[in-house]
Amino acid sequence: MRRHLTLLRAYFAQYVKVRLAYRGDFLIGLATSMLATAFGFGFLLILFSKIPRLAGWRLEEAVFLYGFGLIPFGIFNVVSLNIYEFGNTYIIEGKFDRVLLRPISSLFQVLFEVFRIESLHEVLIGVLAVWWASRRLGIEWSVGTLMLSVLFVLCGAVIYVSIFTLLSCVSFWFEDRVGVHPPVYNLIAFGRYPLSIYSQLIQFLLSWIIPFAFASFYPSARLLGRPEMRNLWLLAPVMAAACLAVMLFTWNRGLRQYSSTGS
Amino acid sequence: MAEAPLIAVRDLSKDFRTFRRREGVWGGIQNLFVREYLTVKAVDHITFDIDRGEMVGYIGPNGAGKSTTIKMLTGILVPSSGTIQVGGYVPWRDRTTYVKTIGVVFGQRTQLWWDIAVMESFRLLQKIYGVSQRDFDERMALFGDILGINKYLHTPVRKLSLGERMRCDLAAALLHNPPLLFLDEPTIGLDVVAKDHIRQFLRSVNQRFRTTVLLTTHDLDDIEALCKRIVIIDRGRLLYDGPLDLLKQKLLRTRQVKFVLRDAAAGARLRAIGTGGLAIDEVDELTFRIRFDRTKVSTGDLMREILGAVEVRDLVIEDEPIEEVVKRIYAGEALREVTL
What we know:
Chain A contains 13 helices and no strands. By secondary structure, chain A is mostly helical.
């Protein structure tokens, strides 16, 4: 574990060096990424200028939910770049060979060889939004709730990473360029609004099929003390562990399936 | 009792399942739904051992299954059937611990990070393999000496020439001082000087650390310079496994004499000699080449006969190049002559 943390630091430092060598590219990436976040909050403000409450949620509560959801989402975005590239660069172009020749977990290498550093701003803005909303709503942050929210963030990030990596595992079996990620990625946005505004079907989907609600909605509802679906937040660590387990199992099966390239 | 072999390969096979891709847009749509699968046997029931300290050449034509074998030996691919044991490890199963004991160089693609300076790649590898600072410095000094890589340690990998990159890749593969080294076409695309440099380096590593080396190559000079033993495979099957010398002795029967005559008129007399199973090629009107089986015809007698018949200005006697032998093996002609 400590070895992996040291290596994570080394990989990150390495990548930052490369990335900053192409500064223009980095700045443009940061600007577009921030624009996307601004649109998200902009939409909330417009929405709440028309209606006072959304399924019984005030603006501040909605901002809290949106902001709190951004934190695990930002962490996920920082490490997810290679998950989307996995089928293409690692499997089809055979870059995975090199990964398998190193004495570290293959998944570790794929996740941490490239970072989308600019997504760290999402974490920062998420924290700011939660802080602002908490002050307006008069939420007290004890050490206990702070630790609980750190746990929620970790669970959320694990859920996102596991689900998208699971989708990438498809490439082990079908060496095609299949675009399964974008539609699922778009589902993440659903978890940023109160779950109760959706139909039963969508609620079920986001809770039990692709459990993004456990990465943002249920934890936020708990931290806000909302009455909806009171105790489901307890399952967040369970869902995270389950997603991780299914993903790791599939990944390891996929490794056996890997057939490399011709030469 | 002899030491147990370092590498033990038993009845190893690898099948690939591919499907026939139809062409065109409509074909592409059909591909999504209906697929005809084909099974290709890339490696077909191969068995061999390699001892510690050996340098073995693994050769075969394109698509013979060389790379697939190397990929199974290095833990990248999982065999379809059969077993591999290397130093007590099963490569694919014990991958993360096993790969610490091997070094791998693929001539076709680099193992280094493309965008960062060579030295930074080495430092990252040092952390990945947990090489102590003392060992690291010692080995870098050694590589600087015999590979001459000091000059471009601070250049990004993408800016290196192929020869420079290959030297760096070799150094990277040996940074953790593995007892076993796999090289997949290490001299591909290199010029003569760079090839020679790399061969010398490999020989010295083998002598100094008793590093076991298995290399695949298309350049038989690599084999002649480095390996006493060769393993030949084609279409996934093992064709020959034994000493290079034995192969040469058994198969290098044909010898050729090339000579230049003083005047063209002598050509007719020369052709008259060509009766006793001798193949005479006319290169141009003054230059002739005679090929003969050295087990049947004495070189001395033949020379006397030719020199007695015609006036020769210049002559060269040479053995058939090893390439020719290998070509014949690939073509399936020479197989019967070798006892496996």
